[in-house]
Amino acid sequence: MMNRKEFYEYVKDNVKEYLPESYKDAEIKLQEVEKNNGLKLTGITIPNGNQRIVPTVYLDSLYQEYINGKDVDTCVGDVADMRIEAQGKAEFFDMGVPDILDYEKMKDKLQVRICDKEWNTDRLADKVVTEHGDFAAYYAVNLEENGEGISSIPVTVSLMNEWGVSVEQIQADAMMADKNRGVQLVDMTQIVESMIFGGTPKNLLNEKLDMETVENPMFCLTNESKMNGASLLLQEDIRKQIGECLGSDYFVIPSSVHEVLILPDNGIFQVPELNAMVQEVNETQVERQEQLSDKVQFCDKKTAVMENAERREARLEKEKAAEKAEVKGGIHGRLEKAKAEIKAKEADKVPKNKSKDLAAAL
Predict the structure, then answer these.
(1) Within 152-232, where are the H helices?
(2) Is the C-alpha dihedral spanning 304, 307, 310, 316 positive or negative?
(3) Cα dihedral 281→132→113→31 (10° resolution)
(4) N or C: which end of the chain has fewer CB within 10 A?
């Protein structure tokens, strides 16, 4: 049985046998592609003629199938099939390459992507990035969006320079494009019910809920396609709408890059428990590249300011301790001042009395 590297090289050396004649002169390359949160995948690119946009076929899952007993030549044939299937889409995108450099044509296709800043330092190096507390936002042009997924290209610094626009302009236009994709705040109970019984959960974003009537107060913020919807959290007016809907401050659970969970701060939830829950779910249920973060956030209803929930609690404890020290110091200071004033008065009295006695004696 071949090891991973040998398998990839075998695919590269033999895939042309399964491809049409138009691929006979293709310069086939293996490349490591860094995905979200440090995940690295191995892809193969097989250009057809003078294509400028060449699709990447990832080999990692095929290697697992090979390890599990699938014939190696069948795996190679699968790679060829995937490459041929992607050709039509690649030709479509190739025709649109000149438009990619036209910002006015691309700005409505922009999308904000969000990730954990600490987990993605290397991946963000050449991207247009804005920082938002624990999160970093980077940007993509969605060339195609449908029920099967999204085909996109990242907005790099070099592409921004070609466009001749600022980071602020890209951020503003991407956020507007995201709003146009639809913003949804949905009760998690309704989501589960819709999965079982069908139907569409109600969008609660513009509602004002009576939380006492909500049995399990947990909500999901995402977009209509439920793809890359977690970035809506970065928009201040949306955070404010959520606070108005719930009528309270709330916690933000970074469940995945596609959505976040919203929990009203009703005194039931403890930050350490929430952090532990997120970490466990990330480790056991969410694929690495789909994970958003393990840092629970807290959002103030009135100001819509969002901050790391753990650091917020530490800050509040520090402020409380400082206030106690100030109060204690204030009382002590006033007592000491009063004592000093009494002593001063007594000191003033003694010489005066003695002076009177001396005058009388004389």
Answers:
(1) 157-163, 167-180, 188-197
(2) negative
(3) -80
(4) C
Sign of the dihedral through C-alpha 310, 315, 320, 325: positive
Helix (H) or strand (E) holding 80: helix 72-95
- Does the structure show a pLDDT above 80 at 265? yes
- The three-state secondary structure class of 255 is coil
Rounded to 5°, angle at Cα 277 from 273 and 283: 145
* pTM: predicted TM-score of the whole model, two decimal places: 0.80
β pairing state of 40-45 and 29-34: antiparallel
**CB atoms near residue 242 (< 10 Å):** 25
The band of 155, judged by pLDDT with boundaries at 50, 70 and 90, is very high
First CA to last CA across the chain, in angstroms? 123
- Residue 7: CB atoms within 10 A of its CB come to 20
pLDDT at 331: 62
Q: What is the rounded average pLDDT for all residues in the chain?
A: 89
Smallest Cα–Cα separation from 136: which of 144, 127, 147, 145?
A: 127
Instruction: Report whether 8 contacts 42 (CB < 8 A).
Output: yes
Give the tens place of pLDDT for each residue, 203-242. Answer: 999 999 998 888 889 999 999 999 999 999 999 999 999 9
Could you tell me if residue 19 is left (phi over 0), alpha (psi between -120 and 50 degrees) or otherwise beta?
A: beta
